Amino acid sequence: MSGSTTLTVWVYDSALGAAAGEVRLKDLEQRNALVVHDAVTVTWFPGAHEPRIGHVRHRALLSAGQGSMLGVILGAALFVPVAGVAVGAGAGVLMSRLHGVGIERSLLEDLRARLAPGRSALVVLSSEADPETVRTFVSRGLARGDVELLYARLSDDAPAELRALVEEAVARDDSGSP
């Protein structure tokens, strides 16, 4: 896992699970166990009509002064209307081009299928993971049985490619061009 870029999705069986995962993620980052390029939480509170996407504040985004690219991607993936209904041009193009960096539509569909009222997810784009430190974190979470792990190995230049895709999608939606 060391050196490679991954997208990991931790799906929790409680609405507050992702917030707890965020604390653990920040601990891993402080230990230099991985480099976080972007991270968001997706929280669906009981009784809410849809999940809420929250940005996780971390060193990479703060130092670069950038917003969350995963927030835009998940917004498109989770809130794109069903087939046959018009969607933003940028969102449609973005979803079709994610495959090029290693994010399969099936991963996003799995996330959408697992999210329901009372559940949450922590979605992390990271690289340079220290396998032993991260393995301990992963094993502890899975042993409790309250979390499921989805992941994808991405190209090494995935963070830059995703940023470019998101910027293009946002510009396309702003301009109204297809």
Overview of this structure, please?
There is one protein chain. This protein is α+β, with helices and mostly antiparallel strands and 178 residues long. It has one domain (5-40, 49-117, 128-175). The chain is 46% helix and 22% strand. It has a five-stranded antiparallel sheet, with helices on both faces. The termini are far apart.
List the helices and strands and how they pair.
Elements: E1 5-12, H1 17-30, E2 35-44, E3 52-55, H2 59-64, H3 69-79, H4 89-97, H5 105-114, E4 119-127, H6 131-144, E5 147-154, H7 158-175
Antiparallel strand pairs: 1-4, 1-5, 2-3, 2-4
Helix pairs in contact: 3-7, 4-7
In short:
This protein is α+β, with helices and mostly antiparallel strands and 178 residues long. Helix content is 46%, strand content 22%.
Which class of secondary structure composition applies to the elements?
alpha+beta
Q: Characterize the overall form.
A: globular
Radius of gyration: 16 Å
Tell me the major beta sheet. Answer: 5 strands, antiparallel
Oligomer classification: single chain
What features would you highlight for this structure?
alpha+beta; globular; 22% strand; 7 helices; 178 residues; five-stranded antiparallel beta sheet
